[in-house]
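Lab notebook, design round three. We kept the backbone fixed and only want residue identities now. Task for the bench partner: fill in a sequence for the structure below.
Input structure tokens:
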């Protein structure tokens, strides 16, 4: 039986592990956290919203356990402003398919337990480069699905596919509950709220289902350096993150402050801060022994959260990888195959990278005219009214 190791228990790694185990491969998952660690001692790595295609694959694998409980967004409500407290226009866009955001801590804990119950091997350990080399010798294919630390640095940056060398935004996130999952000025739709300030950055409010099965808002802040949204660099607790968030909201977007002010953080770990350069890496790592490992998810590609595509992209990458493994049959998982597998994903989905990076750039005049022309439209994709 073909033996496959997956290093990393995030969304992409666990989906690939489940799909491969279900297809008859011998799968070993390596995680530096237990399910209890995810639930009790970890911060969410992000909001992790997914759209229709990615959600459907989770359903096909029997892993979409929260469809009946989680809140599904119907569209996007945009407020555009160029100075504090002065909106220029509002726009509504409706989604043609599903969107939801589930706490990655809940997913990782649940999917790890289920994988073990199916009979796959789950090992809890911190995998070093030396240990990774050993794992590649014990398996026919080793997949690295963790985008941090010394292991990620085994995968060189792909200069031809990477646009930025430095972070484009300073990031902050805090997830809150205690207020309705609705926006007062959008009563007929549950949208992702998008506040766009071209001089300063962006702020998003995303319906989010927590590890404790609470209905929440994930508040994501994307600050341009030194501006009024760049207020999260020094926060060190959820309370400090929430204080910073309320300050930004009150200063810039009072239309949202009134209905958000009485919220409270959903748990002590439900926050993040940081900054990173969006990066595409070469998918093949060479280990000291000469053996190779294949990158998946954030190990291969990191996207700025501005487009809400990180988890969505990881799901699609994992699905492509599983398809390529199944098509390979008894053939070797050599470096050429690894590169061609990622190239196929890139050919299909590179437009996600282009779209995401477009949002990081100043809006061109054509984009402004398009938004002005859309003002007052219903937001429906099939609306052909003038």
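Proposed sequence:
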């Amino acid at each position: 039986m073909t033996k496959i190791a997956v290093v990393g228990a995030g969304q992409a790694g666990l989906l690939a592990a489940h799909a491969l185990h279900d297809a008859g491969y011998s799968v070993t998952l390596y995680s530096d956290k237990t399910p209890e660690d995810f639930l009790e001692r970890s911060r969410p790595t992000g909001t992790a919203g997914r759209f229709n295609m990615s959600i459907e694959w989770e359903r096909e694998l029997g892993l979409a356990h929260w469809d009946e409980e989680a809140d599904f967004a119907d569209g996007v409500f945009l407020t555009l402003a160029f100075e504090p407290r002065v909106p220029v226009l509002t726009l509504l866009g409706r989604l043609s398919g599903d969107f939801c955001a589930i706490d990655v801590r809940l997913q990782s804990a649940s999917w790890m337990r289920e994988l073990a119950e199916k009979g796959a091997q789950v090992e809890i350990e911190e995998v070093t480069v030396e240990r990774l080399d050993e794992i590649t010798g014990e398996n026919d294919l080793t997949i690295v699905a963790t985008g941090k630390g010394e292991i990620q640095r085994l995968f060189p940056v792909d200069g031809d596919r990477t646009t930025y060398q430095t972070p484009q935004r300073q990031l902050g996130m805090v997830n809150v509950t205690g207020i309705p999952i609705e926006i007062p000025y959008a009563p007929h739709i549950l949208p992702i709220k998008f506040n766009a300030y071209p001089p300063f950055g962006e702020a998003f409010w995303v319906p989010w289902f927590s590890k404790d099965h609470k209905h929440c808002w994930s508040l994501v802040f994307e600050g341009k350096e030194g501006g009024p949204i760049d207020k999260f660099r020094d926060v060190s607790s959820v309370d400090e993150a929430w204080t910073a968030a309320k300050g930004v909201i009150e200063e810039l977007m009072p239309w949202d402050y009134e209905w958000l002010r009485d919220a409270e953080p959903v748990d002590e770990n439900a926050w993040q801060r940081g900054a990173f350069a969006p990066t595409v890496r070469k998918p093949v790592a060479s280990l000291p022994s000469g053996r190779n490992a294949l990158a998946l998810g954030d190990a291969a590609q990191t996207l700025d959260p501005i487009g809400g595509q990180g988890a969505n992209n990881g799901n699609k990458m994992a699905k492509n990888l599983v398809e390529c493994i199944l098509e390979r049959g008894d053939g070797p998982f050599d470096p050429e195959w690894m590169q061609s597998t990622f190239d196929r994903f890139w050919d299909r989905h590179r437009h996600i990278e282009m779209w995401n990076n477009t949002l990081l750039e100043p809006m061109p005049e054509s984009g402004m005219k398009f938004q002005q022309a859309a003002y007052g439209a219903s937001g429906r994709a099939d609306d052909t009214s003038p």
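Keep this in mind before ordering anything: The chain is about 35% helix and 25% strand.
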